[in-house]
Amino acid sequence: MQMATDDQRPRRKRVPINWSLPIFSAFLGLVLLAAGWIGGNPLLGLAMLGIMLAFGAIFVVGHRSETIRMMAAGRGADERWRSIDLRATAFSGMVVLAAVIVAFLWEIAHGRSGNPWAPLGALGGVSYLAALLWFRWRG
Amino acid sequence: MRNDVRTLRLERKLSQGALAEALGVSRQTINSIEADRYTPSLPLAIALARFFGRPVEEVFHADGNR
Question: Which of A32, A52, A73, B58 is least surrounded by Cβ atoms within 10 Å, i.e. has the fewest?
Answer without folding.
Answer: B58
